[in-house]
Design a protein that fits this description.
Structural class: alpha/beta
CATH class of the largest domain: Alpha Beta
Shape: elongated
Largest sheet: 5 strands, mixed
Strand content: 15-25%
CATH architecture of the largest domain: 3-Layer(aba) Sandwich
Oligomer: single chain
Low-confidence stretches: 85-89, 302-306
Length: 306
C-alpha cells in the first residue's frame, strides 16, 4: 500500500470519476485505474463500482476512505511542518532537452523561483532518453522531453503527458530555388547538400526518414548551432528542423533563411511533453509547476498559430 494509492481513492470518491480524478492529479486515467485496482486486490475487496457514468463507492469503502483521508491529512501536516522548519533544503529538479530553443523556459523558471522562493530549483539539460531514465531512477522530478518511439514506451513508474505535436520544416537560404516552394517533398531535397543537428532525436528522425524515402546528400552533423545556421544562411546546404527552431533562429526572423513545411505522410507522430514519476510524493509545488509548464507550452503553441 502506497500513499499515492490512498490519494487516488480519495480523489476518485471526491469526483466520482476516474477521468476527472486523473486530470486533477496530473496522471493518466489508466494509471489511476490500475493503482486503485491493485489496492483493491491487496485489501481483498472492491472499493468502487465502475460504470460508464463514473465510479460509486461500495458499502465497504467508507471505512477505508475515512482512514485514507486521515493518513493523507497527517502526511500533509508533517510535510507542512517540515517545509516551515527546513524550507532552504527543499529541492526540485527539472530536466529539458538540450538545444530545444524554447524561449518560454527562462521566464517559466523565473516565475517558479518567485512563487516558491524556498525551493532550490535545479535545471538540467540532456537527451530525451537520458532525461526519461533520470525520472525513472528518481534523479529528476519533472522532465520536458521529445516524445517519440523510444521515449513513449510505457513504464510503470512514470506518467507521460503529451502537450504539443512536433512539425518538421526544411530550412534553406532565401536565394535557394527551394525557397519558393509551398512545401518540400523527398524528391525536392534528395540531391541537395544536407547538414543535420547531431542529437539523439534528430538522428532517430533522419534514420527513420532515410529508411522510408532514400538517402540524402549528407555533408556533416554537428552540435554547434551557430555552424549549422551559418551553413544554411550562406546557401552551402539545407537542413530539417523542428518547428520551435523557427521562433528562435535569427536568420529566419531576418528573412535570410526560409522555412518550408516538410511533406511526409509516413512520418511517425512525435510530440513535446512532460514526464514525471508516479512513485514519488506529488507535492503541491510539483503539481503547480507541472500545471504551469503545461500552460506555458499551450500558450506558446497558441501564439505560433496566431
Amino acid at each position: 500500500m502506497q500513499l499515492e494509492q490512498l490519494l487516488h481513492i480519495i480523489y476518485a470518491n471526491k469526483f466520482r470519476s476516474l477521468t476527472k480524478a486523473a486530470e486533477e492529479l496530473y496522471i493518466s486515467q489508466s494509471a489511476i485505474s490500475q493503482s486503485i485496482s491493485k489496492l483493491e486486490v491487496e485489501l481483498g475487496l472492491s472499493l468502487f463500482t465502475r460504470s460508464r457514468n463514473g465510479v460509486v463507492p461500495t458499502k465497504d469503502a467508507p471505512f477505508f476512505l475515512n482512514r485514507a483521508e486521515q493518513i493523507i491529512k497527517i502526511v500533509d501536516e508533517m510535510n507542512e511542518k517540515s517545509n516551515k522548519s527546513n524550507q532552504l533544503n527543499k529541492k526540485l529538479s527539472i530536466g529539458t532537452v538540450a538545444g530545444l530553443h524554447l524561449h518560454f523556459l527562462t521566464p517559466a523558471l523565473l516565475s517558479f523561483q518567485k512563487k516558491f522562493p524556498f525551493l532550490d530549483i535545479e535545471y538540467i539539460e540532456n537527451s530525451s532518453l537520458a532525461l526519461r531514465e533520470s525520472v525513472i531512477n528518481h534523479e529528476l522530478d519533472i522532465s520536458l522531453i521529445v516524445l517519440y518511439e523510444k521515449t513513449m514506451k510505457p513504464h510503470h513508474s512514470i506518467n507521460i503527458q503529451p502537450l504539443m505535436d512536433i512539425k518538421f520544416y526544411v530550412l534553406v537560404s532565401k536565394d535557394s530555388p527551394l525557397s519558393e516552394k509551398t512545401y518540400a517533398k523527398y524528391e525536392d531535397i534528395a540531391s541537395e547538400p544536407f547538414v543535420m543537428h547531431n542529437g539523439e532525436f534528430m538522428n532517430w528522425f533522419l534514420s527513420n526518414y532515410v529508411d522510408r524515402n532514400g538517402k540524402l546528400h549528407l555533408l556533416f552533423k554537428s552540435n554547434n548551432t551557430d555552424t549549422l545556421r551559418a551553413t544554411i544562411a550562406k546557401g552551402t546546404a539545407i537542413t530539417i528542423e523542428t518547428e520551435n527552431e523557427l521562433y528562435s533562429n535569427p536568420d529566419i526572423m531576418s528573412g535570410q533563411v526560409v522555412a518550408i513545411p516538410l511533406l511526409d505522410l509516413g512520418l511517425p507522430k512525435t510530440s513535446l511533453g512532460l514526464i514525471y514519476s508516479t512513485k514519488k510524493y506529488f507535492s503541491p509545488e510539483k503539481a503547480e509547476i507541472v500545471k504551469s509548464l503545461s500552460t506555458y507550452i499551450t500558450e506558446w503553441k497558441y501564439e505560433q498559430i496566431l
